[in-house]
């Protein structure tokens, strides 16, 4: 599925692990991905880039600040 701010959370939840991921985390991750990887497929993001995006998502989750980069 192509990454966008309006994409379904399902591909993100699948990749992050549904049981271990909250909707808030998935929404924050969608924002991070849309910022840096818009138009790409979720499954095409390499492990290094995915982990970097996870770190940014954690910053957003902890601060509530979507402007964290």
Q: Could you characterize the architecture of this molecule?
A:
57% of the residues lie in helices and 0% in strands. It is mainly α. Helix 2 (23-37) packs across helix 3. The longest helix is centred in the C-terminal third of the chain and has 17 residues, at 47-63. It is globular, with a radius of gyration of 11 Å.
Low-confidence stretches: none
Return the structural class. mainly alpha
Number of helices: 3
Mean pLDDT: 91
Rg of Cα set: 11 Å
Spell out the helices and strands N to C.
Answer: HHH
Total number of beta strands: 0
Helical residue percent? 55-70%
Q: Mind describing the biggest β-sheet?
A: none
In brief:
The protein is mostly helical and 69 residues long. The protein has helices at 10-16, 23-37, 47-63.
List keywords for this structure.
single chain; 69 residues; mainly alpha; 0% strand; globular
Task: Give a topology summary.
Layout: H1 10-16, H2 23-37, H3 47-63
Helix pairs in contact: 2-3
């Amino acid at each position: 599925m192509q990454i966008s701010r309006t994409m379904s959370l399902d591909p993100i939840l699948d990749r992050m692990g549904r049981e271990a991921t909250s909707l808030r985390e998935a929404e924050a991750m969608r924002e991070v991905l849309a910022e840096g990887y818009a138009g790409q497929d979720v499954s095409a993001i390499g492990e290094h880039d995915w982990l970097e995006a996870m770190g940014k998502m954690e910053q957003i989750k902890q601060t509530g600040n979507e402007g964290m980069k």
